[in-house]
Amino acid sequence: MDNRIIEIEKYAKENNIPIMQKKGINYLCNFIKKNNIKNILEIGSAIGYSSIKMALVDKDIKITTIEKDNERYLEALKNIKNMDLEKQITLILGDALNINLKDKYDLIFIDAAKAQYIRFFKKYEVNLKENGYFFSDNMDFHGFRENKDLIKSKNLRQLVGKIEKFIIFLKENDKYETKFLKTGDGIAISKKKGD
Fold it and tell me: What is this structure's pTM?
């Protein structure tokens, strides 16, 4: 394991920045390798951890990643530069709901504001290639989805409700075939069906 990655993980932990769980990110990286994915859009960069891990799978991988928090964006820029990955990773500062991209991607990874997952999905599906994949993280939301009695705040209850709505949205969306995995914090993989 590269020390620079260990530093990023440490920084995330110390500053309470949510990054993908190890099992989840390892699954995602293996998935990218196995399916020969080269063009990725990530919604929610945070400090650049997952885009760095994905870029390290193969030097031909190109990632566009969007982050709306200025402080996290700057930290991500620094981390990407530190890993010498500027040629592979393009970082955009802004709200993903207000950004319009022309490119098409093999994989679109949603890991941003949980309450907006349906909107992100609907907005960016025009950017997904035929037979491409949507990859959504935090479907279990730290175990709260299955243990609602542990939820103490109204905000958290609403957030878990939004994730459940998103899961129903995926299950009922007949343009995609979705499978749900218990890996990491719960992952949904939605494959676009061919015409």
Answer: 0.91
